[in-house]
Design goal:
This protein is mostly helical. It has two domains: 207 residues, Rossmann fold; 92 residues, Tyrosyl-Transfer RNA Synthetase (Orthogonal Bundle). It contains 13 helices and five strands. Strands 1-2-3 form a three-stranded parallel beta sheet. A two-stranded parallel sheet has the order 4-5. Helix 1 links the parallel strand 1 and strand 2. Helix 10 crosses helix 12. The chain starts with 11 loop residues before the first strand and ends in a 7-residue tail after the last helix. The structure holds tryptophanyl-5'AMP. Tryptophanyl-5'AMP binds next to strand 1, helix 1 and helix 7.
Length: 344
């Protein structure tokens, strides 16, 4: 089967999540839930725990290993089925790092300095950031293009990195006069592509926010979830009948979007039911739906984490399968670039 946007390429979806902290409701709604939904829809699905990305900022080795397993448990608990999808951790497939080097020679330094994620993470002292943090988007492009992936589901915050991936693919194809890499489509869809902090409607919900009250973690129990929603920042006005009425109320809009994403409804459908009511009524309803959506996931995660050897086996098996797709594409890339290949 050929991809409609990139004729000649197999439709293949790739996406990744960093194991750099516990996963949040933002990761679930913006990524994991959609990863599961995209399975069995006609495209191959390849999902990766991007541990090589995580180490661009220092990670405690013991903790990192635990978080890789926890991320794998979160993928599976959210419905990613290792029999239907390839699920693995990045560092077990060396093609990613090798392709990243090749892309380091294609991408321009100026492209990297423009990345807002680099600016945010490097902060004021960017001279002291790891070289890996600067080169990070070339590794991300490598993740995607080592599978010639045609589509990448992500949240809004990854848009700029995906544009850079398209730039790298286009520059490579142009510089070498080939059509080797597809121009990957970003899939940034739905109402939860940017879940905001519960404490500040202008900031993204993030696993690295110092305030735990700002996010819902996939490992939070029912009481914690209800309490965080109860304490979420809102305003005193009643809810309007349609989402347009929440333009200047970012905290309120965020909670309505979260409700809609959890309930598989549109924000307008949600507001049609809550029109005229205040947060005293809305928050308990949101807490109920959040708990009923997340509790089964938390419970399954705990079950998977009780058997780390099985997680390791699944990731190892996924890595072997990923390798069979990635290695021939990497080889072909090296040939195109004129790197001599003569190993028996
Ligand atoms: P990461 O680990 O920060 O986030 C993983 C995924 O979760 C989405 N996400 C959110 N979506 C909605 N609202 C939020 N508050 C929220 N927070 C996170 C992210 O958009 C992402 O889809 N660079 C990537 C990882 C990566 C990758 C890749 C992704 C590496 N290689 C190749 C796709 C393809 C990152 O740091 O995501």
């Amino acid at each position: 089967m050929s991809d409609p946007i990139n004729p000649g390429f197999t439709p293949r979806i790739f996406s990744g999540i960093q194991p750099s902290g516990g996963l949040t409701l933002g990761n679930y709604l913006g990524a994991l839930k959609r990863f599961a939904a995209l399975q069995g829809q006609g495209a191959e699905t390849v999902y990766c725990i991007v541990d090589l990305h995580a180490i661009t900022v220092w990670q405690d080795p013991q903790m990192l290993r635990a978080r890789i397993r926890e991320a794998a448990a979160a993928f599976m608990a959210s419905g990613v089925d290792p029999a239907q999808s390839i699920l693995f951790n990045q560092s077990q497939v060396s093609a990613h790092a090798e392709m990243a080097w090749l892309f380091n020679t294609v991408a321009r330094v100026g492209w990297m300095y423009r990345m807002t994620q680099f600016k945010d993470k490097a902060g004021k002292n960017s001279e002291n950031a790891s070289l890996g943090l600067l080169a990070y988007p070339a590794l991300m492009a490598a993740d995607i293009l080592t599978y010639q992936a045609t589509a990448v589901p992500v949240g809004e915050d990854q848009k700029q990195h995906l544009e850079l991936t398209r730039d790298i693919a286009a520059k490579f194809n142009h510089d070498y006069g080939v059509g080797h890499f597809p121009i990957t489509e970003p899939l940034i869809e739905g109402v939860a592509t940017r879940v905001m902090s519960l404490r500040d409607g202008s900031r993204k919900m993030s696993k690295s926010d110092p305030s735990d009250a700002s996010r819902i973690n996939l490992t939070d129990d029912a009481d914690t979830i209800a309490q965080k929603i109860r304490k979420a920042r809102t305003d005193a006005d009643p809810l309007p009948g349609a989402i347009d009425g929440l333009k200047d109320r970012p905290e309120a809009r965020n909670l309505v979007n979260i409700y809609a994403a959890l309930a598989d409804e549109t924000p307008d459908q949600v507001l049609a039911r809550f029109e005229g009511q205040g947060f005293g009524a809305f928050k308990p309803a949101l807490a109920d739906i959040a708990v009923s959506a997340l509790s089964p996931i938390t419970a399954k995660m705990t079950e998977y984490m009780d058997d780390p050897a099985e997680i390791d086996r699944i990731l190892g098996d996924g890595a072997l399968r990923a390798d069979t797709v990635a290695t021939p594409i990497l080889e072909k890339t090296k040939q195109i670039m004129g790197l001599l290949r003569s190993r028996p």
